[in-house]
Amino acid sequence: MRIEHIAESAAGYFLGPLMRRVGVMLIIGSSSIVAVYHFSVAGILALTAEYGPLQARLIIAAIYAAIALFTLAIFWLTRRKIRTVASTPILDSPREMRIAMLVEAVMLGYALAARKGERAH
User: Where do the structural domains in the chain lie, given as residue ranges?
Assistant: First the structure.
């Protein structure tokens, strides 16, 4: 087998499922856009008979604006706050920092000792 065949096979193995998912997501997205369009047209037709053409379009626009603001609020409330290592509450004081370094040193020593023990056998 040549290197090109191996690379092509590996790329197909990893990119195949990804491309299928992208295709399905494109179908779902385009179908959703078409559905929203038709719901909007149906809503405008129903509201036009009741309130008139201008008010019907304003009502539909207000509904879309409310949905957009609600989505923006959810994204804003669920955003991740960036924390630095120094701002983690568990390692704020020097005492906790020393204990963490001590535990890390003990774990590293244990791992090195276990590795040397494996070579002796």
Answer: 1-79, 84-121
